[in-house]
Amino acid sequence: MTIEKTQEFLKVFGFIFFLISSAKADQAGGWNRFRGPHGSGVAVGCQPPVRVGKDCEAWRVPIPQGLSSPVLSESQIFLTAVREDELMTIALDKQSGKELWRRFAPVKATEKVHRAASQASSTVLVDEQYIIVYFGSYGLLCYDHDGNEVWKKPIPTPQTLYGMASSPIGFGEMVIMVLDDDRNLPGSKLSRSRVVAYEKATGKEAWKTARPFSRSGWSTPIIWYHKVGTDLVVLGDGRLNGYDPKTGEGKWHTTGFSRETIAVPVANRDHVFASSSRRGGDGDAETNPKPFWDAILPFDKNKNGKIERSEMKVPFTFPFRPELPIDHPGFGFPMPVDLKKREERVDWILSWFDKDKDQAWSEEEFMKGFKDKPGKPLLVAVRPGGSGNVSETHASWSVNRNIPEIPSPLLHDGIIYLIRAGGVLAATDAQNGEIIYRNRISSLGGQCTASPVYANGHLYLVASHGVISVVATGRKFREIHSYDLGEESETTPAIDRNSIYIRTGRHLISFRKSK
């Protein structure tokens, strides 16, 4: 072997070793971050029960309110919660559900959040040594597995539309956080938005990169191990960005996403796939406005078939999610409590469709104006290896249908699965973006905020009203089972060797496959 070939072999071998060691570090503990290994939602080699139900319920324990998802170590479960403004991290025993320890953040919950959100929304990061927790009201906290504090890192609370939800992820010996801020001035060199890496062992800042084009977002990043390298991928306001995870140096970006990005990207060696609905949750480029008009008709108090300015009083709002009841906090556009600001917001909303300036919406005006809404939902496949703006050069395909607002996509065996509000499940070919099937799961319906998870040939899908449905993977739709949990559930389940753990509004439940 020549010296040149030997050097090339050593480079390739070193790169492969780096990928393997980094991947192992990222997956320590199995389901150790939001959506499990690499944020994929895929539990390889695990066999939780397919027919989830009372007969396989191992335990059900009460827990305080929170919207963080459970994560797992070899023997423990970790989650965050809030009760009477006390922010807490809780560890439970996987076998019994017994609480092992509870630690409180050094400050009260002061972060302003939407009524449908929580001040305990970010999911814990676990590795073989540390438990790393983020609260928008405080910053980062690090514990060992016995609950002893290792370090703490106060971080000023970013200003957001609804509250912080992005979760920490690990890369080797670093923990990475996306801290995007609405006070950001797009393009300004004095960017408040940034992505930051901290040393896991000490909390010391390792690197920081400004995100000058980004305002608040709610997506958690991923590490993408692809065929030509490794990227930190961050989906945010209008953009998907790729960074060098070792240094934070920006590498590439693609545009076309909505103002409000929530879903976690997924990836294989050939592509990273990222999605966002149109602002307000529309998942199709061509959305039927009739359900939205029907949802707003209860505000027509004089029953003249119009929504007049005088009828736009509390609790009036513009419906974002017509499948929800009017009094649900996620039903419509957030409205200010301050009366003057509310009146200004109502005037602005009225102007969207009131083209004849008669201080009212007719059904005809509403329908036409709705169809002319700007922006579009998007799912895009991006190839690795690009530099700068790769929107035109490295996008293999994109589609504008079936895009969920909150749940992340799930990629398995060449198929991307997308679950939307109303219980609509779509399967998309990851190679070309073609729709394989689109079916409504009758047992789900309503809102879906939990992301799908996979194990043992099946998808587990949880609707907000508390029904879990199990669907076989593959190119043909087959619903296998459904079960009513008995209470609402809005968080993504966790999976290990033989169990699935589901957080509801009041409990954490373990369903375990018998031996």
Provide the descriptors you would attach to this structure in a database record.
mainly beta; Recoverin, domain 1; five-stranded mixed beta sheet; 10% helix
How does this model look, in words?
By secondary structure, the protein is mainly beta. Among the domains are: 31-64 and 406-515, Lipocalin (Beta Barrel); 290-371, Orthogonal Bundle (Recoverin, domain 1). It is 10% helix and 35% strand. It contains four helices and 36 strands. A five-stranded mixed β-sheet has the order 1-30-31-32-33, with no helix packed on it. It has a five-stranded mixed β-sheet with strand order 15-16-17-18-24, covered by helices on one side. Mean pLDDT is 90; it is low at 3-29.
Compact description:
By secondary structure, the protein is mostly beta strands.
Largest sheet: 5 strands, mixed
How far apart the termini lie comes to 53 Å
Number of discrete helical segments: 4
Coarse morphology: globular
Give the % helix: 10-25%
| Mean pLDDT across all amino acids | 90
At the fold tier of CATH, the topology name of the domain at 31-64 and 406-515 is: Lipocalin
The count of DSSP E runs of length 2 or more, i.e. the number of strands, is: 36
Name of the level-1 CATH class of the domain at 31-64 and 406-515: Mainly Beta
What would you say the CATH architecture of the domain at 31-64 and 406-515 is?
Beta Barrel
Estimated share of beta-strand residues? 25-35%
Strand order of the largest sheet: 1-30-31-32-33
Q: Structural class, judged by helices and strands?
A: mainly beta
Radius of gyration: 23 Å
- Low-confidence spans: pLDDT under 50, at least 5 residues? 3-29
